[in-house]
């Protein structure tokens, strides 16, 4: 086995896990990936935000959220591995979990193509190399198809909104921004020193922005927010759209249907 496939995003080299290793996932998209890699029976814990696949995860105990968990609940699960993400989980939490003698596997996909290495990492550690290859094949096929049509999509400057009170958006150095770039949409740069900067509409040059995208997560924007924006900025009302945040921000196996979704979404927006 290629040893590089066993190195996670924190630089930790892992050994292949023993058969039946007990896994806790603290990242919603990784929980979904584990089930899509036929590892669902080994998932013994999750966060309250791990909601897919719905029928399966409901029976799995939650240890808390992505930012704070109950270490006592985690300890009671007798987990062998905990899956974490640099963006979604605090570094201090990883250190506390390691002190319990649980192996921590860290992910940090920053581009859509990083999903290929993520499939390899999980597949290599948990003996699902064939399933990893199948997901890679599916991903590569849709990614190649989308790339071939990239040149036909007009470039659009986008503000992608993830939160309000305060308003927050994304920088170009994020997975979401790279996902948007697959359809030739460029996230505007608000503050290069922050990956998820705050902003105010009064400081935006809306004349230079083509699309204002309100994401369904982490803040649950809905049609009322589109109407609010239209009322405040009537000259730019036709730029505002709701977008499925799970499709744009979740990595792993979700990236496969997500690329199809975004391609269709982009086509509908510009039509």
What does this structure look like?
By secondary structure, this protein is of the alpha/beta class. It has two domains: 3-140, Rossmann fold; 152-270, 3-Layer(aba) Sandwich (Rossmann fold), CATH 3.40.50. Helices cover 37% and strands 13% of the residues. The chain has ten helices and eight strands. It has helices at 28-36, 54-57, 71-76, 91-99, 114-125, 129-150, 175-181, 223-232, 245-249, 255-270, and strands at residues 23-25, 43-45, 81-85, 103-107, 156-161, 185-187, 211-215, 240-243. It has a four-stranded parallel sheet with strand order 2-1-3-4, with helices on both faces. Strand 3, helix 4 and strand 4 form a beta-alpha-beta unit. Helix 6 (129-150) runs parallel beside helix 10 (255-270).
SSE topology:
Layout: E1 23-25, H1 28-36, E2 43-45, H2 54-57, H3 71-76, E3 81-85, H4 91-99, E4 103-107, H5 114-125, H6 129-150, E5 156-161, H7 175-181, E6 185-187, E7 211-215, H8 223-232, E8 240-243, H9 245-249, H10 255-270
Parallel strand pairs: 1-2, 1-3, 3-4, 5-6, 5-7, 7-8
Helix pairs in contact: 5-6, 6-10
Structural class: alpha/beta
Distance between the termini: 48 Å
Report the portion of residues in β strands. Answer: 5-15%
Secondary-structure element order, N to C: EHEHHEHEHHEHEEHEHH
How are strands sequenced across the largest beta sheet? 2-1-3-4
Tally of structural domains = 2
Helix fraction by DSSP (H/I, runs of at least 4)? 25-40%
**Poorly predicted parts:** none
**Can you summarize the main beta sheet?**
4 strands, parallel
Number of strands: 8
CATH superfamily membership of the largest domain? Nitrogenase molybdenum iron protein domain
| Known CATH architecture of the largest domain | 3-Layer(aba) Sandwich
Task: Kindly identify the CATH topology of the largest domain.
Answer: Rossmann fold
- Overall pLDDT, averaged? 94
